[in-house]
Write a structure and sequence with these properties.
The complex is a heterodimer of chains A (about 525) and B (about 190). In chain A, about 35% of the residues lie in helices and about 20% in strands. Chain A has 20 helices and 21 strands. Chain A has a seven-stranded mixed β-sheet. In chain A, helix 16 links the parallel strand 15 and strand 16. In chain B, helix 1 crosses helix 6, helix 4 packs across helix 5 and helix 4 crosses helix 7. Chain B is globular, with a radius of gyration of 16 Å. The chains are: A alpha/beta (about 525), B alpha/beta (about 190).
């Protein structure tokens, strides 16, 4: 994907992520912040490749700091985009939900990529629920073109309703490539003072007024979603109706030609749920199948708790699987169409090929050292974190025992140690440490917890495509010392295949120490090194 | 006309750049195209697949369905076999013959090749043909050449896409890849007469 910006051109092939980035630039965005996370990473990558001078664009420590930086740009009147994966919105939930109360000035768009099916994630939460929780608008594109159009629209409606707008992508939109026609670009706006402090300072007196104001705007938001360009209602079959949202429409339309009849159909791409459109569909049918990617969000709103005269079918009722990514095949089954014949391999046994650490990856040596250090120790607990090194859970190492959320390794090791299970070892990468590991380490310093933290410093955010870590490895030591870790129990060592024994001995010694210790094992990511030699980064 | 392609390989083999060439060839011919890729953790030395859907009419789903794919293009024979349940019967199974053995339980290679042949598939000696083209790293482009014999797109569209993909690397690299494409194409074209 290469192109010049600034003029309307013929269609180009864009990933959904790229379409969001290009649309933000075309909307005159002044500030873009993000933390890498599949499947959202390419939004920021594309902004960094294409943003004209004057646009502030940067990776940040985590999604919360990214969101707050974008919010500050919005407060001074600039349009701002913040991009993250779905679980990143948990980290940024505090600023997101609270910023729905302030009087947004420059359009603020939160592009969140959900990962149904968990291709590269620890859960498949549905960001529409969080948009609803914040009582704000959500847009759900069904193609790269809609990702472009909706991003541009999101800035406008954010300013119109004075709320942050959530743009919900899913993996197959974020990483699906299809053609996009771009529109006329808008100019970057200068930063201006003008926000009323009373509309941005959530003291209880202000917050009560602003919360009430947000609730009062809900009706107008529904009126807007009732009129949305992506809303389509066709009244055909008098018994059976289908509601689709976002990408589900595409899987549904794939199957319609084989049905032999045309169900009545409502498609939604904008939330709050357009109530009247749903009622108009319901007026002409008595059975409604809801096909939506993620949670049964619309389905639950329709069926509620009390019996109705409509049969509402979907993920809750088993018409569609309760979990996992929708596919044209699962939608086909839900519509009652027969499964197509499939070729099988008979008794040929096809082994799986799970992802694995790269050849020459320094994590091989670190895990070899961890295993050697723990050998013969009896009980121990090894908590770990999110990154390539989570693969240390799989054979041949099986060296780690947990991976929950960014930074959890350190807090969990502290809790396990407090509970009496020692040695407690936390294994975390350098970028994950900077993202969410610093604050739990501060807790451990304050309590002088008997635990050891092993930071695997490969100077890279490796798993998402070798972005540079926010701080270079050389800055880790002063940071950790500054938190108050005792210099006698902070070690920065290089890890190589010939130094496995040394690291194992050091780990053994520090795990025996009755207090907090931190070991930073340094070696650059082998892929990042390769790319750097090629001159790519 | 509709033509669904599923590309299979191991993370790091270049499945995504291969998909990009097929997509570009179709786009340049004025076709509707939807491409689906997998990034992130799934790429680390594990199974990777991408799909390219090509059609003269607008395409609905981003994803291909089981039992209807027109061609599986494998960069690795075991990975090509992994997705045969997507293939329509009587459709094309084309794969590089060379194995990528990074797992302990990789089956004996002759049994893998036999499975491909049992399904009427074609094994392409991609690494040898790439060396013959003077570009040992171009086995993926050899596979594009073989695939082009079954795809409803002219060879010239693929060659143009290859030229665009490698143009930044200089004319010599471009020409080596064009040779690789043609050798891959000849490997699946019945001899004249």
């Amino acid at each position: 994907m290469t192109q010049t910006l600034g003029q309307v051109e013929t269609a180009r092939m864009f990933l959904g992520d790229e379409a969001v980035a290009v649309a933000a630039i075309d909307s005159g965005v002044g500030a873009v912040y993000s933390y890498p996370g599949t499947p959202a990473t390419e939004i920021m990558q594309t902004v960094l490749d294409l943003a004209p001078p004057g646009v502030a664009a940067a990776w940040t420590a985590n999604e919360k700091t990214a969101y707050e930086a974008a919010l500050g740009a919005s407060m001074v009147g600039q349009r701002a985009l913040v991009a993250m994966k779905h679980v990143g919105l948990n980290v940024a939930a505090d600023p997101f939900i609270n910023s729905a109360l302030v009087a947004i000035r420059g359009g603020l768009v939160v592009a969140v990529a959900d990962d149904p099916g968990m291709h590269s994630s620890q859960n498949e939460q549905d960001s529409r629920v969080l948009a609803d929780f914040a009582r704000t608008i959500c847009l759900e594109p069904a193609s790269s073109q809609e990702a472009y159009d909706m991003t541009r629209e999101a800035f406008e409606v954010s300013e119109r309703f004075e709320v942050p707008v959530l743009l919900r992508l899913v993996t197959r939109i974020a990483h699906g490539r299809s053609s996009v026609t771009t529109g006329i670009p808008e100019a970057l706006r200068p930063a201006t003072k003008g926000a009323s402090p009373a509309d941005w300072t959530l003291l209880p007196g202000n917050a009560r007024r602003l919360w009430r104001s947000l609730l009062d705007r809900q009706g107008d938001m529904v009126d807007w979603s009732e009129q949305h360009a992506t809303l389509q209602l066709s009244e055909d079959d008098r018994g059976f109706g289908v509601i689709t949202t976002g990408i589900a429409r595409n899987h549904y339309l794939e199957s319609v030609p084989g049905l032999g009849f045309t169900p009545s159909h409502l498609h939604l791409g904008a939330y709050p749920i357009p109530v009247n459109a749903v009622r108009r569909l319901a007026d002409c049918v008595d059975r409604i199948l809801v096909i939506e990617e993620g949670y049964p969000f619309v389905e639950r709103a329709l069926s509620g708790l009390l019996p109705t005269r409509w049969a509402v079918l979907g993920r809750r009722t088993g018409s569609l699987p309760p979990d996992g990514e929708l596919t044209p095949d699962t939608v086909r089954t839900a519509l009652g169409l027969p499964t197509r014949p499939r070729i099988t391999l008979g008794d040929f046994d096809l082994p799986g090929r799970p992802p694995q650490l790269c050849k020459g990856c320094p994590h091989h040596d670190s895990f070899a050292a961890v295993l050697a250090a723990l050998e013969g120790l009896g009980e121990s607990v090894v908590t770990a974190d999110i990154g390539c090194y989570t693969l240390g859970a799989l054979p041949p190492y099986e060296a780690i025992e947990s991976c929950v959320c960014m930074g959890a390794s350190i807090g969990m090791a502290r809790g396990a140690s407090d509970a009496g299970l020692r040695p407690a070892l936390a294994v975390i990468g350098d970028s994950t440490f900077l993202h969410s590991g610093v604050t739990p380490l501060m807790d451990a310093v304050a309590a002088d917890t008997d635990m050891t933290v092993l930071i695997l410093d490969n100077d890279t955010v490796a798993m998402t495509g070798q972005q540079r870590t926010l701080l270079p490895g050389t800055r880790l030591e002063p940071l950790i010392t500054g938190l108050g870790v005792h210099p006698d129990h902070l070690h920065v060592v290089e890890i190589t295949t010939t130094k496995v024994g040394e690291l194992a001995a050091l780990l053994r010694r520090e795990m025996a120490h009755e207090g907090l210790s931190v070991i930073v094992a340094v070696k650059e990511c082998v892929e990042a090194l390769k790319n750097r030699r090629k001159g790519k980064s | 006309m509709r033509f669904d392609v599923l590309l299979a390989g191991v993370g790091g083999q270049g499945v995504l750049s291969l998909a990009a060439i097929v997509t570009e060839a179709a786009r340049a011919e004025g076709m509707h195209v939807k491409q689906a890729e997998v990034h992130g953790m799934a790429q680390r030395g594990g199974s990777v697949q991408a799909t390219v859907r090509i059609s003269s009419d607008p395409i609905e789903s981003e994803l291909v369905s089981h039992g209807v794919v027109d061609m599986i293009l494998g960069l690795e024979p075991l990975e090509a076999l992994r997705y045969v349940d997507y293939l329509a019967s009587g459709s094309g199974l084309i794969t590089a013959a060379d194995p990528y053995e990074n797992i302990l339980d990789y089956p004996p290679l002759d049994t893998v090749h036999e499975q491909v042949r049992l399904l009427g598939g074609h094994l392409i000696d991609a690494s040898r043909l790439a060396r013959e083209a003077g570009s040992p790293r171009s086995s993926n482009v050899v596979m594009v050449g073989s695939a082009s014999t079954l795809a409803p797109l002219p060879a010239a569209a693929f060659e143009a896409a290859i030229r665009r993909a490698f143009s930044s690397k200089g004319e010599r690299v471009v020409e080596a890849n064009i040779r690789a494409f043609r050798l891959g194409r000849e490997a699946l074209t019945p001899a004249q007469g």
